[in-house]
Structures are given as structure tokens and as C-alpha cells.
Design goal:
The strands form 6 sheets. The protein has an 8-stranded mixed β-sheet, with helices on both faces. The chain has a 5-stranded parallel β-sheet with strand order 2-1-3-4-5, with helices on both faces. The chain starts with 9 loop residues before the first strand and ends with a helix. By secondary structure, it is α/β, with parallel strands linked by helices. The protein is elongated. Helix content is 35%, strand content 23%. Helix 5 crosses helix 7, helix 6 crosses helix 9 and helix 11 packs across helix 15. It binds cytidine-5'-triphosphate (CTP). The site of cytidine-5'-triphosphate has 15 residues, from helix 13 and strand 16.
Length: 402
């Protein structure tokens, strides 16, 4: 690790009350050595395991413990700390602190700071393996993850409570590496990235629509990853069940025509456009004001009209922009993806066979291949959508630099 890696970064190190709290001292030393300005916030029970004096000495800054002291001092300390931080790293994070944040409880300085921040939050949980497996904990963990909080998984091993299982805090070196990875790459700074995500809905009548199974997860993962790398991100999203990621400019649309208009309005300012949306190719030719009645007939015809192909149109007026599309296929993956890459004038297409297990619309993972305009093809193993997003952006950065 280069010693300058965290220069200029402000990190809040949250320490909660678990036996692994002693490892926070070593982690803090690494963060400071990496050049970061670190402010430690300890919970009351953390102070039973490690003294604030140790952490104060290592950080060179006062250690914060009490919410109300700060308020009495007329400096709303938790807000200013929360504003200044680039990262809040909670290590070790108990089941208790994760449960509180997941449920909106902010009853001490650490939980208040986490709730008030717009910075990224990274939890390094450590606990008894039964607590780790407890469905209540699993729910809280999953909820925070889906909201964009980051986690470092604990390791298997001998736990302080005498059990063997998953729950052990990883080495400080490992946590340090995850924190720097989260903060480190700023390779999209100064770039504007336009991302589309989710399905579109094509109205048939006031109560019905045609759509597809897209969940938006892939596009949202790309938007978050681009934001984390320093880009200004504009996200044009169809109707999905995902929260708007922090720090991303979101434009909500419903139909393909609305998505078309929103994308065309924003495209001019974009350096990189990534079209992960599953746009409906057709819409009902007529959409009545009233609910369609079933009548007496056993069959029914719905006439469909072609929607604009947003990506193809972007390809025709591409300028110096980098254009990346997705191809969701159920057969002849490479052939169809290559045709789309060429006909839409793209720099790269991300192809996935949506019939494959572990790939496709609704899951958290994907299995993709990257096809480049120069003929190169790269096949990736099954990965989380977040990981796919990172590899995709690595490629986009190379294309932007050309
Ligand atoms: N796309 C688009 N506008 C459309 C249809 C598709 O911008 N009206 C974009 C998608 O966002 C995706 C790429 O084109 O990035 C490929 O989409 P896909 O649905 O896989 O293919 P289509 O071009 O629609 O072709 P087909 O449905 O025949 O497979």
C-alpha cells in the first residue's frame, strides 16, 4: 500500500462493543499511516473493550463518545462530522449497531452520524456465529445492503465466545484494503455518466400495461459504482422497487417514449452512456381512456406500434461519447449481441443469456460477456451485479482514455 493512498480523505472510524474492538487500534494505525484524517466515534459499550485514550493517541484527534455533550457545546458535532466524512467505517460492527441503523434508530453519536451522512458507510460485522445466522440479523443486513451500505464479510474461525463459525472480524489489513478500494478509485472524476435502468411500461388502458421482468438492479449497480468513482451520474429509470442511490441525479420515467425524451435531453452533456434499461420495443397503438372490456369473444387483438430505439438513435449521433449497451438474449447470444453492437454503433455491449441460472433480470448476480467494437470478447464467471458494474466501468475508463 502506498503511504499517500488516503491523503485528503476524512474517515470516521466507528467502534462498537465487541471483543474484536481491540483490532480497531491496528486498523486506525493503518488508516492514519495511509494519510487519512481519522475521527473516532465510540459507542458506550466499545469503551468497555478499548480505551478512548488509545484511539485518541493513535488518531491524533479527540475521540467522540457522547451525543449530548457535543450538542451542549453548541457545535452540532455529529452533523459536521457526518458532512465532512468521505467514509464511515464501522469496525467491529455489532449486530446491535446494524440492527439499529437498519431500523432507523439513532440514539447515540455513532448511529446519528451514520443516519445523517451522505458519505459511503462500510460495516465490518463481528459477532457470534448464531447471531450472524439469525434471520433477524440477516434481514437487517440485507436491508442495509439493498440501500447501498457496504459490508466486509466476517471470516470463519474460532470465536471469542467459544464457538466455531462465521463471525470473526477480518484482519485490519483486509479491512484497510476494502476501505481504500471503496475510497481509492476516482478514475471517473470530471466525467458525466448517463445510465438507464429498469423496464418500461407501455399502457394499454388506465389499469393495464405491457412490460418485462427487469428489476433495475444491474443499472442501479452501474450508477452507484460510477458515482463511487467520482463521476456525476444521471440515472434515467423506469419503474423499479429500488431506492434512488445517494448522490445520483435520478429522472423517473414510465414508458419508452418518456425514456427516449429524457435520455435525448441529457445525452448532450454525457461523456459515457450505459443503457442497461430493458426498453419495450412496442407499445399498444391505442391506449383508451377507459378500461378495455372483455366482451364476448374468446380472443382479442392488440395492435402494437414500434417504440423508438433509443440506443440506435444515440449511436447515430454519437460524437465523442462512449456508448455501452446491454443485450439480453435467450439464444445465439454472441451472434445477436454482435449484431446489436454493430447496428447500434456501440463501443461495447454486455451480453447475457437470461435463461442461464445466476444471470438475468431479477437476481443479484449476472453472467456476462463483454463484446468490444474491435472484436474482442471477454467472458466473466458468475458475479454479483456490483462486481459486474466495476469490471464494466474498468473497461469504460479504458475506452474514455483512448
Ligand atoms: N434499447 C433501446 N431502445 C429500445 C430497445 C432497446 O435503447 N427501444 C437498448 C437497450 O437498453 C439495450 C440494447 O438496446 O442496451 C439492447 O436491447 P435488447 O432488448 O436486448 O435488444 P433490442 O435491440 O430491443 O432487440 P431484440 O428485442 O430484437 O432482441
Amino acid at each position: 500500500m502506498g503511504s499517500e493512498m488516503l491523503q485528503g480523505k476524512c474517515i470516521i472510524l466507528g467502534v462498537t462493543g465487541g471483543i474484536a474492538a481491540y483490532k480497531a487500534a491496528e486498523l486506525l494505525r493503518l488508516l492514519v499511516k495511509g494519510g487519512a484524517e481519522v475521527h473516532v466515534v465510540m459507542t458506550r459499550s466499545a469503551q468497555e473493550f478499548i480505551t478512548s485514550l488509545t484511539l485518541q493517541t493513535l488518531s491524533g484527534n479527540p475521540v467522540h463518545t457522547e451525543l449530548f455533550n457535543l450538542i451542549q457545546e453548541h457545535e452540532i458535532g455529529h452533523i459536521s462530522l457526518a458532512d465532512r466524512a468521505d467514509l464511515i467505517l464501522v469496525a467491529p460492527a455489532t449486530a446491535n449497531v446494524i440492527g439499529k441503523v437498519a431500523n432507523g434508530i439513532a440514539d447515540d453519536l455513532l448511529t446519528t452520524t451514520i443516519m445523517a451522512t451522505r458519505a459511503r458507510v462500510l460495516f465490518a460485522p463481528a459477532m457470534n456465529s448464531n447471531m450472524w445466522g439469525n434471520p433477524i440479523y440477516r434481514d437487517n443486513h440485507a436491508k442495509l445492503k439493498s440501500l447501498g451500505y457496504h459490508f466486509i464479510e466476517p471470516l470463519y474461525g474460532d470465536l471469542a465466545c467459544g464457538w466455531q463459525g462465521q463471525g470473526k472480524l477480518p484482519d485490519p489489513q483486509q479491512i484497510f484494503k476494502s476501505a481504500t478500494a471503496l475510497l481509492g478509485s476516482n478514475d471517473l472524476a470530471g466525467k458525466t455518466v448517463l445510465v438507464t435502468a429498469g423496464p418500461t411500461r407501455e399502457e394499454l388502458d388506465p389499469v393495464r400495461f405491457l412490460s418485462n421482468y427487469s428489476s433495475g438492479k444491474m443499472g442501479y449497480a452501474v450508477a452507484c459504482a460510477a458515482r463511487n468513482r467520482g463521476a456525476r451520474v444521471i440515472l434515467v429509470s423506469g419503474p423499479v422497487n429500488l431506492p434512488v442511490p445517494k448522490g445520483v441525479e435520478a429522472i423517473q420515467v414510465v414508458s419508452a417514449q418518456e425514456m427516449y425524451r429524457a435520455v435525448m435531453e441529457q445525452a448532450e452533456q454525457a461523456d459515457l452512456i450505459i443503457k442497461a434499461a430493458a426498453v419495450a420495443d412496442f407499445r399498444p397503438l391505442v391506449c383508451g381512456d377507459q378500461k378495455v372490456k372483455k366482451g364476448d369473444s374468446d380472443t382479442m387483438m392488440v395492435e402494437l406500434q414500434r417504440n423508438p430505439d433509443i440506443l440506435a438513435e444515440l449511436g447515430q449521433h454519437k460524437g465523442s461519447r462512449i456508448l455501452i449497451g446491454f443485450a439480453a438474449e435467450t439464444q445465439e447470444l454472441l451472434k445477436h449481441a454482435r449484431e446489436k453492437l454493430e447496428s447500434k454503433n456501440l463501443d461495447m455491449i454486455v451480453a447475457n443469456d437470461v435463461t442461464q441460472e445466476g444471470a438475468g433480470f431479477d437476481g443479484d448476480t449476472n453472467i456476462v460477456r463483454f463484446l468490444m467494437a474491435d472484436g474482442n470478447v471477454q467472458e466473466l464467471p458468475q458475479m454479483t451485479k456490483q462486481e459486474v458494474a466495476e469490471v464494466l466501468l474498468d473497461k469504460a475508463v479504458v475506452l474514455l482514455d483512448r
